[in-house]
């Protein structure tokens, strides 16, 4: 196990911040960050560009050259092992060798089968001091979407919900705008901006008629909007179908039923029905195959509950508003009635903070 200095930690933390900022832009690739250092001084930084563009290491080298310097003899701090294969771009490990780097520190080994230790091996074979494992837990968190897609063949799934203090998400008539305040809604825009896709159900589309777009930030591409509508009950004139970039998931294979949605620019995916809705694990696998690293859920109690019970939610972010709306209003999760408290669904609170006047709770679910 390599020994890392306090200075190593500082520079890797800087690389992780660069990676976090590049996550959405780089998808489906991992948003990697790289910092080049010589004699304790940063001489170049970079982060992964959009697919087909430079990887982080190449951007850092270009930044170094633009400063009138050279990477020879420097240390590269990179949040993921440099790639070693020819894909859309040449191998980063090969370029690091050519530039004469003395040392490369990776936060973690890349689990992608075409890399998986080969990048570090290439560097070592060229006489470069190459190691991995510095701030690996933090790197796994930053790269969680990419890692989930590669290691589990499904996206990292974040469920977002907003409720009153009595646990209600909408009135009995379905009205829910707005339960939370402006600060919480802006925070949700940040979550959407990070996501490759946003999943909702037909019930939410029928009642709320949402757009499910990112409006507070400029993105190279809006997240894919995914509507789960097993029986095709959603009217094709809903706002979610405006402008295309919408995937409608159904169990109805009748092509004539598909036509009104296709004419609106939507894409349709037919999946077998299971427990009253399209097969959810299969949907996750199909989304991963499309390159979806991170999926956000903005749905009603029925779909929320089904996803949690299926063990498909990695984290949930709940916004609690300081208000009460009564016992007849709609709840957060559709859940079977229990006879014994031993059967309750356990959650683990990861973080609690104020967002404007609302409380934001980050939590994870114990797997069934």
Automatic annotation (TrEMBL):
Residues that, per the record, bind Zn(2+): 55, 83, 92
Phosphoprotein keyword on record: no
Residues binding NADP(+): 162, 178, 204, 208, 230, 300-306
CC cofactor: Zn(2+)
CDD domains, per database record: Riboflavin_deaminase-reductase (cd01284)
CMP/dCMP-type deaminase domain ranges (all copies): 6-130
Active-site positions on this chain: 57
Highest rank taxon of the organism: Bacteria
GO biological process: riboflavin biosynthetic process
Pathway: Cofactor biosynthesis; riboflavin biosynthesis; 5-amino-6-(D-ribitylamino)uracil from GTP: step 3/4; Cofactor biosynthesis; riboflavin biosynthesis; 5-amino-6-(D-ribitylamino)uracil from GTP: step 2/4
Keywords for this protein: Hydrolase, Metal-binding, Multifunctional enzyme, NADP, Oxidoreductase, Riboflavin biosynthesis, Zinc
InterPro entries: APOBEC/CMP_deaminase_Zn-bd (IPR016192), CMP_dCMP_dom (IPR002125), Cytidine_deaminase-like (IPR016193), DHFR-like_dom_sf (IPR024072), Eubact_RibD (IPR004794), RibD_C (IPR011549), RibDG_C (IPR002734), Riboflavin_Biosynth_HTPR (IPR050765)
EC number: 3.5.4.26, 1.1.1.193
Catalytic activity: 2,5-diamino-6-hydroxy-4-(5-phosphoribosylamino)-pyrimidine + H2O + H(+) = 5-amino-6-(5-phospho-D-ribosylamino)uracil + NH4(+); 5-amino-6-(5-phospho-D-ribitylamino)uracil + NADP(+) = 5-amino-6-(5-phospho-D-ribosylamino)uracil + NADPH + H(+)
Chain positions recorded as substrate binding sites: 176, 192, 212, 215, 298
UniProt GO molecular function: 5-amino-6-(5-phosphoribosylamino)uracil reductase activity; diaminohydroxyphosphoribosylaminopyrimidine deaminase activity; NADP binding; zinc ion binding
Matching PROSITE patterns: CYT_DCMP_DEAMINASES_1 (PS00903), CYT_DCMP_DEAMINASES_2 (PS51747)
Cofactor binding note from Swiss-Prot or TrEMBL: Binds 1 zinc ion.
Keyword set includes Oxidoreductase: yes
PANTHER family, alphabetized: 2,5-DIAMINO-6-RIBOSYLAMINO-4(3H)-PYRIMIDINONE 5'-PHOSPHATE REDUCTASE, DIHYDROFOLATE REDUCTASE FAMILY PROTEIN (AFU_ORTHOLOGUE AFUA_8G06820)
Function per UniProt: Converts 2,5-diamino-6-(ribosylamino)-4(3h)-pyrimidinone 5'-phosphate into 5-amino-6-(ribosylamino)-2,4(1h,3h)-pyrimidinedione 5'-phosphate.
Family indicated by similarity: In the C-terminal section; belongs to the HTP reductase family.
Protein name stated in the entry: Riboflavin biosynthesis protein RibD
